[in-house]
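Re-run with default settings, no changes from the original entry. Doing this only to confirm the output is reproducible before filing.
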Amino acid sequence: MSRKIPQIPLSTGDFLYAVMIYILVRIIFISKNALYIITTSLLICYCIEFLQLYQGKCIIELRNTLFGRYVLGQGFLWTDIIAYTFGIAFAFSIERIILKNTNQVSA
C-alpha cells in the first residue's frame, strides 16, 4: 500500500517487511538468542536488497512475477537498508517489552 497511497511514506513497506522477517525468524528459531535472531533477520533483508543489484535474465523474469516483485523487489535503495534496520530494531524492542511485561505478570 505504501507504493499506491501517496500519504504513506515509501519506506513504510520496507519497515513492515523487516518486522515480518524478524517475526518469521523468531518463530523458526524460537530457542535462539536475540543476537542470532537480529543478525539472521538483517542478513536476510540485506541479502534480498543487495540481490536487486544483480540483473541476470532468470532473476529479471522472476521479478516480473507477482511473487518475485513482492519478495525480491525491483531495485536497490540505500533507504531500504535503513528501513530494514529500523524495522528489525523496532520488532526486537517490542518483543523485549512484551517479554518483560509477561514475566512481571507471571511472577
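The mean pLDDT is 89. The radius of gyration is 16 Å.
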